[in-house]
Amino acid sequence: MPVISKETINDIQRQANIVDIVGQYVTLEKRGKNYFGLCPFHNDVNNPSFCVNEEKKIFTCFSCHKSGNVFTFIEERENVSFIEAVKIVSDKIGYELKLDIKQNTQYEAHYEALDLASRFYQNNLHSSDGKEAREYLKNRGINEDIIDEFAIGFAPKGTDTITKMLLNKDFDENVLLESGITNRGNSLYDTFRNRITFPIHNDKGRIVGFSARIYQKIDEAKYINTRETPIFKKGEILFNYHRAQGEARKNKYLLIVEGQLDAIRIYSVGIKNVVATMGTALTSDHINLLKKLNVKIVLCMDNDQAGEKASLANGEIIESAGIPLSILRISGAKDPDEYLLNNSVEAFKDAIDNAITFFDFKMNYLKKDKNLDKVDDVSRYINQVIAELNKNKDDVLINLTINRLSEEYGIDKNVLLNKIIKVDTGIIEPKKGEIKRRISKIDKYCEIILYYMLNDIKYIKLYEQELSYLPIDLYNEIANDILAFYIKYNYISIADFITYEIEGERYDDVLKVIDHMIDQELSDEEYIVLMGKMKSLIDEKKIEELKMKLKTVSDINEKLKITNEIARIKKKDVLE
């Protein structure tokens, strides 16, 4: 990855107006000195809790507590690396960014090998060896534009063709084995042979593996994928995510299908906000990718029993993460690829628009294998629906469903309502401005002192003169980092300090302090009073420690020394 100096990053940040840049993603309204809008990092539909401070060049959300500067906003919102976020911001403000020489990552050779393998496969598809595979793709309606867009290729029939080629390019055999291009038996051999290849990219757009499909009627698995490697883990990858994320944000939804060819087919007809799972159930890593998009999910699994079960299982995972969800069940075809070969694009778009809610899908699923003319099956169905309602917090949905059940099956509404369990979470939402956690007095004082220090160098100097130490290790380490920043750059800026800390162990803790204190008004008098209170607390802590030590000491002279020290601290506090 390119290297950008901290000075350059800070210069870009000084020239960037965070309100203008965040405003390209979030509708902001000025309230007092801050700007507010709906948070793009959680489902913030009705209550704008996302705050941007133009002067300090920072943002925070009072609900999900995501905080940072303009670079970390872009990093999260665009799902890119920090360096890529700096580049995006520089482009937005017209800053001419000159990148330094490249610095190799641990797996740079693996990425390069995979990229070269992909280009080899692409070229091979267009050779005489790939003629039959090209015909297969043509018959499947995959044209040259889509072949080029998705870098579809063909793995040759030879045992070790690609392996030999890469070894001749001076790639280490361990790199070929670790990247999944090559396997080892009695000798090295190609993982993919006589198959159509589809490169698989990570969310940053780098090739991390391949999926390879048969094109002849042979008794082999239809698809084989790169095995798990240091850079390819199926539970972290959604096929086509790197292309789909921007389109998803633009269209306010992401379509998830099962197979790569389904995703390619849908993409080819202009619906580009589509991804495919890699043959696994959705994982927490997948959910993190989906959450970053902040859009509705439309889940479209294959039109068979397994696809129906996958819709239910994946739907539960998505819904439990608080992501809006609809279910699309196609009819008259086994999967979206087949559906689009036999139906119009408009018909498929209409089907997406009319996708049902996940709750309605579950209601339909619960009716399966039940004869609703039988009393026992009706009772079983209604009790299962009630069990689903008891997981739901939407009072409107609960009442509408109860009314529907009452009308459809002639059951007294009150009988059904009595089966609804109201769960008391015991959580009392804090009033606006209140801190949402229990915090000791000394923690609170430390956070306020740090926040003052982050806002003006005069508070840093006062801290050095009056305290120079905080009694909680974490906060003391942050204070030392602030001092180090000031000594190095001779100024202080919250936004720049966030960048300074971004690779450090205390980065998240710094963001928490900023989040908790963002509305703290600054006052010289209050700061001086606070320093006095902190000194008293430090002295109290010292006295307690000395008293504990006194209990363990037997030497009379040592006891006298400790007693005198306690008396000196108490006398000092009285005089002050």
Instruction: Tell me, rounded to a whole number, the average pLDDT.
Output: 86
H/I helix tally: 26
User: What's the total count of β strands?
Assistant: 16
Task: Output the strand order for the largest sheet.
Answer: 1-2-3-4-5
How far from one another are the termini?
55 Å
Give the C-alpha Rg.
Answer: 31 Å
Structural class: alpha+beta
Shape: globular
Percent helix among the residues? 40-55%
| Biggest sheet statistics | 5 strands, antiparallel
Description:
With 576 residues, the protein is an alpha+beta fold. The chain has five domains: 6-93, Zinc finger, CHC2-typedomain (DNA Primase, Chain A, Alpha-Beta Complex); 108-232, DNA primase, catalytic core, N-terminal domain (DNA primase DNAg catalytic core, N-terminal domain, Alpha-Beta Complex), CATH 3.90.980.10; 236-362, Dna Topoisomerase Vi A Subunit, Chain: A, domain 2, CATH 3.40.1360.10; 369-417, no CATH class; 441-575. 52% of the residues lie in helices and 11% in strands. It contains 26 helices and 16 strands. The strands form four sheets. A five-stranded antiparallel β-sheet has the order 1-2-3-4-5. The protein has a five-stranded mixed β-sheet with strand order 13-12-14-15-16, sandwiched between helices. It has a four-stranded antiparallel β-sheet with strand order 6-9-10-11, covered by helices on one side. Helix 20 (441-455) packs across helix 25 (524-552). The longest helix is centred in the C-terminal third of the chain and has 29 residues, at 524-552. It is globular and about 90 Å long. The two termini are 55 Å apart. Residues 100-104 and 422-437 have low confidence and may be disordered.
